[in-house]
Amino acid sequence: MNNLYDVIKKACLTEKGMALQEEMNQVVFKVDPRANKIEIKNAVEKMFNVEVLKVRTANMHGKKKRLGRFMGRRSDWKKAVVTVQEGQSISFIEDL
Q1: CATH classification of 4-84, choosing from 3.40.1030.10, 2.40.50.100, 3.30.70.330, 1.10.645.10?
Q2: Are 7 and 31 in contact (CB under 8 A)?
Q3: I need a labelling partner for 46 at 20 to 30 A (CA). Which of 40, 70, 75, 82 fits?
Q4: Whole-number pLDDT of residue 3
Q5: CB atoms within 10 A of CB 77
């Protein structure tokens, strides 16, 4: 991946993700499906100026959705749970 913004698509701001951030100092991101853990770690460290201890990834399958009588499917995506060093944090809500 050439660009940092190609690796990290956006942050997952869900209830579960916010609980992980408060309790275990972990942040959840939607990332490019081709990105590996090393690329994700380097992108987070450069974008947010923090030290990453661990990266866990999961391939998420798109849900089946119905629109009238037609069945469709959402796109598959990759989720990354990034553990940040104690004392450092990535904040999305406070910056608003």
Answers
A1: 3.30.70.330
A2: yes
A3: 75
A4: 84
A5: 16
